[in-house]
Amino acid sequence: MKSKTIVLIGTLPFSSKNFSYTDGQCEAFKSLLNVVKNIGGAELSVVDILRISSVQKRNIVFKTYNFMHVMFSAIFTILSASKKSKLYITSAQSPRGLMRDFLFIVCGIIKQHEIIMHVHGGGIGETIKRGSKVTNFLASIIYNRASLILVLHDFYLDMFEAINIARDKIIVLPNFL
């Protein structure tokens, strides 16, 4: 029997000879990995979903390849983890990102993973507030299937009211950076 796995999906800082990129979410995810690596008893699977093509000027072929590589890597990792593992996802902030997260959540549901969403900022609140019926439907499925939603501050607690997310599954985890 496989040991339980913690699947961590988020963005990590990127650096090469000619280009580097980071933001608060990248740094927070990197710090989380450093902490979780020191906890024993579970196998870690990490997927960096930073799409270099989205922060660099590249041609459409590179962007498409990069997007497909990131998506297939994440989906394969989620589906290959043992049943009922933990799935941690740094939440998207845009309607397009919700579609990405939706695919990850569906894979997590198939494998009966415990889903933890970590929302960095209030962008998703604005996306829900101004969203179409499709956007809000996807957001509702994503956040209702999560067993835990982490937000950075008390003023983010209300951003899920429009999609009827139970307040007791939302926890404030102050931004430690």
Number of helices: 6
The shape, in one word, is: globular
* Run of helices and strands: EEEHEHHEHEHHEE
**Spatial gap, N to C terminus:** 38 Å
**Sheet bearing the most strands, described?**
6 strands, parallel
User: Beta-strand percentage?
Assistant: 15-25%
Unreliable residue runs: none
Written overview of the protein:
With 177 residues, this protein is an alpha/beta fold. It contains 6 helices and 8 strands. The protein has helices spanning 24-36, 52-55, 60-80, 95-110, 123-129, 133-145; strands at 5-10, 14-15, 20-21, 43-48, 86-90, 114-118, 148-151, 170-172. The chain has a 6-stranded parallel beta sheet with strand order 4-1-5-6-7-8, with helices on both faces. The radius of gyration is 16 Å and the shape is globular.
Topology:
Layout lengths: L4 E6 L3 E2 L4 E2 L2 H13 L6 E6 L3 H4 L4 H21 L5 E5 L4 H16 L3 E5 L4 H7 L3 H13 L2 E4 L18 E3 L5
Parallel strand pairs: 1-4, 1-5, 5-6, 6-7, 7-8
Antiparallel strand pairs: 2-3
Helix pairs in contact: 3-4, 4-6
Report a brief summary of the structure.
With 177 residues, the chain is α/β, with parallel strands linked by helices.
Which structural traits does this protein have?
177 residues, alpha/beta, six-stranded parallel β-sheet, two-stranded antiparallel sheet, 19% strand, globular
